[in-house]
Design goal:
It is built from 9 helices and 11 strands. With about 375 residues, the chain is an alpha+beta fold. It is elongated, with a radius of gyration of 30 Å.
Amino acid sequence: MDDRPPHPSQRHVGEPRLPLLAVPFALIAAVTVVDVLAPPDVHLGPFLVAAPALTASFAGPRMTGFVGAVAVAAQVTVAVVRTTGTDLNHTFQIIALVLISIFVTVFAHLREVHEKQLTQLRSVAEAAQEVVLRPLRDRMGPLRLASVYLAAEAEAQIGGDLYAATRTPSGTRLIIGDVRGKGLEAVGDAALVLGAFRAAAHQEADLPTLVAHLEAAVAADPDGTGEPAAEPGEAFTTAAVLDIPDREMTVRLISCGHPPPLLLRGGRAVPLEVDHPAPPLGLTQYVDTGFAPQSFSFEPGDVILLYTDGVIEARDAEGAFYPLPERAADWPGDGPDALLRHLCADLLAHSPGGSLGDDAAMVAIQRITGGP
């Protein structure tokens, strides 16, 4: 499943919508003909300003300026036919039309510049997503995987939610997490956690050592200044780190303040609640509880759903939270891709206007065999 957040396809910046171009030209022709045939005390020339103004709403500055010039030429034609080119009334109409055409052409130019900036921002966001939040492979050992990222901001594409998976000699390790905060700082912190996980997940012999490595990466001074990156307690990341052996029908889990994964089995969604959760990454220096993994049964056909709090904290129009366990249990059981498509459509339908209040990420993992 494509884990990029969907957005509407974009036309080229400044490219006019051809069917709409007929409207301003038809307006110019209609006003010109009616104004020429109208009685002497009727003047329809002021209506010509609507042509360049309308064009500026969907076309670029060149087309807007061209339509404005055509409207001015039409106004001059009306003045010559009805009176003379130097008639005072028509002269003021022509001057006003020229000024308005210049104004809306400038407006169209500014809108085109803004569209180019948005296009560049979207391209940078997509590039950042490819580097920071790499797509998960569909198959890893005896597992099938699918992932999705829904950004709360349409232009952002990526925020502080994170996930990754890597193979080890004996199985597969995964992480899902949520960095406190938003914006570029959250993206940087997410990249830090993901980089540490990818570098160490296949090297560390056990899960507690791996999570300790992640904690050290989050707690370290990233700038080398000797000063903390934020006030104590301000920078932290909730995370769930999983180790799924190929030949054991179990999953080992360490939860660092993250919402519990859901185990989907037999039409039920069971939260995998650990008995001794650890604090979020970056806060264990204040609460020294250690990292104790807990094992759960994970058999062929089972699905584990990982998610961030943007999913369960999504509210409907009446303020009710999204009931993820109930909706996940309704899944017909057609594989991880189908599960995430089902949940994404249902989550967006639950949220007013299909807009989430926070970034949301989900990863579905299905064991399909008892070995690699």
